[in-house]
Request: fold
Amino acid sequence: MGLIAFLKTQFIVHLLIGFVFVVSGLIINFIQLCTLILWPINKQFYRRVNCRLAYSLWSQLVMLLEWWSGTECTLFSDQATVDKFGKEHVIIILNHNFEIDFLCGWTMTERFGVLGSSKVLAKKELLCVPLIGWTWYFLEIVFCKRKWEEDRDTVIAGLKQLADYPEYMWFLLYCEGTRFTETKHRISMEVAESKGLPKLKYHLLPRTKGFTTAVQCLRGTVSAVYDVTLNFRGNKNPSLLGILYGKKYEADMCVRRFPLEDIPLDEKEAANWLHKLYQEKDALQEKYNQEGVFPGQQIKPPRRPWTLLNFLFWVTILLSPLFKFGFGIFASGSPLLIVPFLTIVGAASFGVRRLIGVTEIEKGSSYGNQEFKKKMK
Reply:
């Protein structure tokens, strides 16, 4: 094992990476708070500033995927579709099977220059998560409780607010509503059977309200829907911890572009269109499992240096004073200083692990587990 590979497995290195991410995130959140004064003066300038602040935080996670673990992301599409990436407002539909599916999506947004302006329809609980939810709040992310009766007005207002967004925007939708697990899949297929819908093998039944509402509210702003089906070679099931330990994965992403004018205006017809799309996604997953590749031309967009340079900037700014402070603490030999310092380090370690836990499948929400029971009442 080489020195670099050895360092990637060391807890102290992980702790330092977590320290840089958390502290830089808190600094960025504070700056974002200060930018609120810009909103009534120049809303579009406020948005552009916050896109770049968000990029400075999220690109650190992309750096871990691209430069730290060396994970490769290959697109299966056509050149005409790829040529439009980063040059239009779009809605992204991505399957929700893996802990790092969002990170693979982010690496594509970074390579095409729209990481800072990417959006998502997120569960409201994330609004209370430090760094993640706080950054999204300033980015005008649309939050929902996943109870349509309560969410309808909030989601519509949030989507319409984005109609004049000044940066090219990729709006991500996890139409399945929650991550795939065997239990959720079984319950979801029971719901499909009760509704007379075709069963899916590799996906949960898509929730159509968010999709149809997004299409209706963003029509005239969004040019197309990109359907993205993600898988990992070798039947791997990667995790954020695996990325942190430097494990390299190979992600394959099949991307299809559907012009928005091809999606029906009628809500029911648009919902049927989405169900048909997920049947096609299921067929794509079946083909991948059988052949190890998706159909289409293989394209590998080059990674850019900005994620690495941004991380090195924060490392330089934050670790130099930390090392000086830590050395001074231990040089003093005072237990009254050393014990609190170690306590803070331990608390920081716990906090970083909790943040990572947000992405873990086994720690995912129970959304979907009770869905069938509710539908059958």
